[in-house]
Amino acid sequence: MANAIEIIEVIKRFGATTALESLSLSISDNEFFTLLGPSGCGKTTLLRMIAGFEAVSAGEIRLFGQNIANLPPDRRPVNTVFQHYALFPHMSVLDNVGFGLKMKGVDLAKRRARAGQMLEIVHLSAFADRLPAQLSGGQQQRVALARALAPEPRVLLLDEPLSALDLKLRQTMRFELKQLQKDTGITFIFVTHDQEEALTMSDRIAVMSAGRLQQVGTAREIYEAPNNRFVADFIGETNILQVEAQPISQDLTRVTLPGGSTLDLPAPPTASGQHSLSIRPERLSLDPQGSLTARLEHVVYLGTDLHLMARLADGSPLVIRMQNSARTALPNEGEEIRISIEEGAARLLAD
Amino acid sequence: MAGAGPSGKSGKDAAWAPLALPLMLPTWAVIGFFLLLPVLLMVVYSFLTKEFRGGVIWEFSLAAYDQFFISRGLFGDEPASIEWTYIGIFWRSLWQAAVATGLCLLIGFPTAWFIATRPPASRSIWLFLVTIPYWVNLLIRTVSLKFLIRDNGPLNEFLMGIGLTSGPLPLVNTNLAVQLGLFYSYLPFMVLPIYAAVERYNFALSEAAADLYASRWRTLREITLPVVKPGIIAGCLLVFIPSLGAFLAPDLLGGAKTFMIGSLIDEQFKGSQGNWPFGAAISVILMSLVLLSLLFYARAQRSQK
Ligand SMILES: Nc1ncnc2c1ncn2[C@@H]1O[C@H](COP(=O)(O)OP(=O)(O)OP(=O)(O)O)[C@@H](O)[C@H]1O
Ligand SMILES: [Mg+2]
């Protein structure tokens, strides 16, 4: 598949601060690609450089193979859904949606028809004549989406477009956005700091932190096989245990868990000495023959799930997630419990 | 961000409702006494008979309006025809005020834009600098301007000094001098409202326009100007209306050929040569003109929507 966007060793500095440090990334055509990371990690900065609002300090951005460094924003076949929508307040919804086409020189009749079509897709046909101020936040968001899609860009950039919406609406919009991307075949680059959003919508996710790329992969890869401690911690919930690692063969490493029992993991022989081990809470279970011993501190009731909060002998906390079922016999708080680790669930992390 | 939705009446507002009328009384009293009453007085005076040496005789008369619109020759014995003298003065005043407003807009818009796009901390310093000349009385400023542009003033000496002109440019007593004077008098009234509008302008809108293939020029024309338009209109009104009735600048900087309405009205109320009803009538005509054009403008705005 052709690459829609190639980011090659891009650096971005603002005066003395470096917002992005030598970042390289390829995004395929037709992909729903998500940039995920905590506030201030440089997601918006990267998006703005792709759109053309910021110049790169070093490196290169290619759009379908062409270096776009010298193209101003109005000459890039890329459209943006802005975080706060940036709808034109003096224009009707229909004129907002038709603006890009007008600037491209499409005649009035054609652009009205196309804008009307776009409004239909986002279920806002009835609001065509309203001003943006007369719409709810969710409706404004959909106008912004229709406006950015109307000129049929090759790449659509979305900067946290759902962050201002309430939970219910956010969930429907996730589904609609994903569907829209499939239907149009446009490459979406979606920015969010919400990992659930990223996991449910994306073909691939790039996890960023402090201006650096931490890991790129599918939702499953990132969740199941985090590269490092940051990714493991940021995506979903995880238990991090301090373990002693000892290579025993070419691709097997033996780790000593708190409490003394051992576990053999596939890991490169470089992993030796003190390390972090990540285990997802849902891959732990109560088991009288389990290899870990802990004291149960309390039980958190989450409806479909239960979280058992326990503490290991070395004092580190451990969370075990289990399905809520009437048949589950729960130990009492304060009791000693034994826990087993699902085969292949533990992962040695690079710090 | 798009503006907030229409604000509903909160419980607090409702609790204050019965007090609304008495609380507004002082405002109404001030407006009534200092605005409505004088205007009413002017309208009444314009229909009274003139007293020599100033003042009025309480006797209904249309003489003032007759004098303004109708000519009967030097001795009042010719057939009635339209009197062009005063209409001409009105026309010239409109023109002078329009040019002054245009000049203010030309200089004021970039100035306001510049200030509004500085870092927030330095904006107040720039605004402060704009207002400094206005600490000095308008009369003194206008006289100083005259000193600056007169034949052997600094401006002409400078121009001759660098060899740009061989003799002094005759600036004083020209239309240009009056326009410059008006421009200088009212420039801040243009800068401040435009500044307020640009400062509130969301520059993400310009980015959104550029993102949707608008060039810089089209972004300015299609997005920025329409969004800050209320500020521009407020500035133009604040400059145009006082320029129309100004008399200091035309009196001090202009000559007989640049006579404006303000000076004409001023003359009617001064000394024994005055004619109060005539002065009042000119004021009423001027005021009606301004009000009518504002009404037309508001109508045009509404039908555009
Ligand atoms: N115009 C600028 N001038 C100086 N520093 C900037 C500028 N824009 C961004 N930065 C800095 O660059 C870093 C990355 O900012 P960016 O806006 O890309 O973060 P983000 O990942 O989008 O965060 P958020 O989730 O809060 O939107 C931050 O440290 C920020 O302070
Ligand atoms: Mg951001």
From TrEMBL, chain A:
Domain ABC transporter: 5-235
EC id: 7.6.2.11
The protein's enzyme class: translocase
Gene Ontology MF terms in the entry: ATP binding
Keyword Ligase: no
Domain of life from the UniProt record: Bacteria
Coiled-coil region: none
Subunit structure: The complex is composed of two ATP-binding proteins (PotA), two transmembrane proteins (PotB and PotC) and a solute-binding protein (PotD).
Family, similarity comment: Belongs to the ABC transporter superfamily. Spermidine/putrescine importer (TC 3.A.1.11.1) family.
Job description of the protein: Part of the ABC transporter complex PotABCD involved in spermidine/putrescine import. Responsible for energy coupling to the transport system.
PANTHER family xref list: SPERMIDINE/PUTRESCINE IMPORT ATP-BINDING PROTEIN POTA, SPERMIDINE_PUTRESCINE IMPORT ATP-BINDING PROTEIN POTA
Designated name of the protein: Spermidine/putrescine import ATP-binding protein PotA
Protein's organism: Pseudogemmobacter lacusdianii
From TrEMBL, chain B:
Keyword Cell membrane attached: yes
Homology family: Belongs to the binding-protein-dependent transport system permease family. CysTW subfamily.
Protein name, as recorded: ABC transporter permease
The organism of origin for this protein: Pseudogemmobacter lacusdianii
One Pfam family it belongs to: BPD_transp_1
Transmembrane region(s): 28-48, 55-75, 95-116, 125-149, 176-198, 227-249, 276-298
Keywords: Cell membrane, Membrane, Transmembrane, Transmembrane helix, Transport
The ABC transmembrane type-1 domain, residue ranges: 90-297
